[in-house]
Amino acid sequence: VSRVANLTLVSSACGAISSAYASTKDCHPYLKSVCDAAEKGVKTLTAAAVSGAQPLLSKLEPQISTANEYACKGLDKLEEKLPILQRPPEEVTS
């Protein structure tokens, strides 16, 4: 997941979405309060899910490791065949 998130195009898209979200919240006070409440709820649910899933994740560690290895190999091939994924967005759009 971290390798995909660090791809230039993916990182740039995430940054643009984050910036648009923050800008929208800043421009609309009512929407900001709704978004803040939703964010708080998501954080609470995520914390509960992580703590509850920890025993399961520990048991699945070998399978997760194998899946990660295959995913990384697939990403290596994808990056090899599509070098555009590492180019700056401005270069891609031009």
UniProtKB/TrEMBL annotation:
Coiled coil: none annotated. Its main location: other. Keywords: Lipid droplet. It comes from the Eukaryota. InterPro entries: Perilipin (IPR004279). Pfam families: Perilipin (PF03036). It is found in: Lipid droplet. GO terms for cellular component: cytosol; lipid droplet. GO terms for biological process: lipid storage; positive regulation of triglyceride storage. Belongs to the perilipin family. This is PLIN3 protein. The lineage of its organism: Eukaryota, Metazoa, Chordata, Craniata, Vertebrata. The gene is Plin3_3.
